[in-house]
Design goal:
alpha+beta; two-stranded antiparallel ribbon; 2 helices; disordered N terminus; single chain
Length: about 170
Amino acid sequence: MRRQISRFAAAGLVVGVAFASLSFGQDAAPDKAPHAALLALKAEIEKIAKDRMPGAKFTFDRGQLVVEYQTRRFTVHSMLKTGAFTEDAAEQIGPDAAGIYVVASVLPGREYMGERMVPQTLREPYWMTDLSAHPIKDKNEHIFLAVSYGLRADKELVEAIKAAAATVAK
């Protein structure tokens, strides 16, 4: 069964689909080793989260780094590009009021070529999601980062996670 996350994960790679699987358009083999940039990002976030996110869960899923801290499953009607909402609700993982949910992926190209403008903050039904892309030095790749956070989440922590991605990419 594929895990479902909010439409930010698709970040325009799957046009017109309200929910995307936990893949940014890449179906990496489950046993494929994580990208070196994602391993470095995980190490940086672990340092940041050491005392500030007790019990945070770090996993690699189909080539992506996923960080979950105080998350839960929500049932949400997604908004389409037209502004209308989907008739059927779907389950998606998101942060609780003080939680944080991070999905990071390495994508080809120096720049993000999806339909969304990055950086950008999306207003999700129960949380905010910051999208950003960070070109990896001396590579034709970039880290695409989606950081979702509840309205009571530690904003300094959110900024530190985003800064970690920028640092790793340099």
